[in-house]
């Protein structure tokens, strides 16, 4: 727990200043969200931004390099002024880094690395300690959210696989009824599978 707390403190200290004018990532996402939310999706890849549009910099054409679906993900943030939206994104990204790291650690690190909780703390510490995580937070990149989505998908898949294994094992019990009401014995089930 101490290692995870130290990694969190390091991450916050190195990434807290988020209003760098050269940080183009979140500016692009915020402007794209603003465009799709206001019905200007046709201008998604056009030049724009700057003080009149609410961003620190004017962006060149094709600065937004993502699928339009990504712009819709930022539409709620575009309801806020730019700096407030970037701070909200920073907090969300910090939670995603810690949570995604914890899910990844608990699900990927081997059992000999400790209990599930210890592996989760180690995963969170690893996710929070590395410089790319700090850069992603400072610049408002999508990497922390992608980590959380992928780690969550991995955890969900593991849950489904375990659930299916339990269901299959339970279906093989003597006298188990299937969905149509037929009763099979263990010997019958072994033959039909």
Q: Helicity, in percent?
A: 55-70%
Outline, from the CA principal axes? flat
Number of helices: 8
Q: Beta-sheet strand percentage?
A: under 5%
Q: Would you list the SSEs in sequence order as H and E?
A: HHEEHHHHHEEH
Q: Give the biggest beta sheet.
A: 2 strands, antiparallel
Mean pLDDT: 83
Poorly predicted runs are 183-193
Strand order of the largest sheet: 1-2
- Please count the beta strands (DSSP E, at least 2 residues each): 4
C-alpha end-to-end distance: 47 Å
List keywords for this structure.
single chain; 193 residues; mainly alpha; two-stranded antiparallel sheet; 63% helix; 4% strand; flat; disordered C terminus
Structure description:
It is a single chain. The model is unreliable at 183-193 (pLDDT under 50). The chain has 8 helices and 4 strands; from the N terminus they run H-H-E-E-H-H-H-H-H-E-E-H. The protein has helices at residues 2-15, 24-37, 68-74, 82-108, 116-129, 131-139, 143-171, 186-192, and strands at 48-49, 58-59, 176-177, 183-184. A hairpin with an 8-residue loop joins strand 1 (48-49) and strand 2 (58-59). It is flat and about 65 Å long. It has a two-stranded antiparallel ribbon. A two-stranded antiparallel sheet has the order 3-4. The termini are far apart. The protein has 193 residues and is mainly alpha-helical. The longest helix has 29 residues, at 143-171.
